[in-house]
Amino acid sequence: MKSREEQITSRDNARLKHARAVREGRIESEIFVEGLRLTEEAAQVLDITDFFYTPEFAETERGEELIKKSHNFNSAIVSQKLLESISDTKTPQGVVLLARKPKTGRQILEEKLKSISTPLFVVLHELNNPANAGAILRTAEAAGAAGAILTRKSADVFSPKSLRGAMGAAFRLPLWTYADFDETISFFRANKIKTICADVRAEKKHTEIDWRRAAALIVGSEARGLTPEEVGQTDEQTKIPMEAPVESLNAAVAAGIILYEAARQRNF
């Protein structure tokens, strides 16, 4: 199929209005992808529905390469000012893609389990900062995690801010979104995967946990962590030792420290 390319000159153009709606999360079936590196990643693995770029972007080497690969995209040339009208950043890089939202769900993780014997998962439970959610997915993929689960009330991992934090990990990492916490615990028990939560009241340090087995790290919300009842549902609890007077770490930083200890034990 040949691309349909047009020159858009009005801020009120229907395609630009649609792009703003996707950016704002008002269209659940599509995601808004912005920036050179992220759009390059998306173009390789996602079903692109719309492609906007500026003349200046088309003159760059990487921009020209991406445009050459866009023969199946619904492309449009826009001015820098018009691109700014749909952008989610202060300094847009001249390109925006809209794409079908990747499939997520329990079945995605079950399929992944067929190809790996000792998986490492990460669970984000009611983590509401999209930048943190994206950063954790990025770190999880880098540390060799098999997939991630985001429970209800967690940040939308496909929001523009979260996608920028994940830097493509959200496109590649098997995900189960909007999961129920109890169902998540049942899923791991059914698959003989130990659940270990990060909890400041825990007795074991993160280096004292055996991460070589099939395991799932559970990270709670930035504000309150996990409730005592939720902690009680997990198999083990762990904490990161800290010098006083520091009492806690940023959720993404804490998850990264623990995930890389797991990777170290797994001879990463």
Task: Describe the structure in brief.
With 268 residues, this protein is α/β, with parallel strands linked by helices.
- CATH architecture heading of the largest domain: 3-Layer(aba) Sandwich
Strand content: 15-25%
Strand order of the largest sheet: 8-7-6-10-9-11
- CATH homolog superfamily of the largest domain: SPOUT methyltransferase, trefoil knot domain
Please give the number of β-strands.
Answer: 11
Termini, distance in Å?
Answer: 43 Å
Number of domains: 2
CATH-defined topology of the largest domain: Alpha/beta knot
Low-confidence stretches: none
Number of helices: 12
Mean of residue pLDDT values: 94
Order of helices and strands: EHEHEHHEHEHEHEHHEHEEHEH
Description:
This protein has helices at residues 14-23, 36-45, 55-58, 61-68, 80-86, 106-113, 130-142, 160-166, 169-172, 181-190, 228-233, 251-265, and strands at 6-7, 30-34, 48-53, 75-77, 95-100, 120-124, 147-151, 175-179, 194-198, 215-219, 236-238. The protein has 268 residues and is an alpha/beta fold. It has 2 domains: 6-100, Ribosomal protein L30/S12 (60s Ribosomal Protein L30, Chain: A), CATH 3.30.1330.30; 106-265, Alpha/beta knot (3-Layer(aba) Sandwich), CATH 3.40.1280. Helix 7 links the parallel strand 6 and strand 7. The longest helix has 15 residues, at 251-265. It is elongated and about 60 Å long. The relative contact order is 0.13.
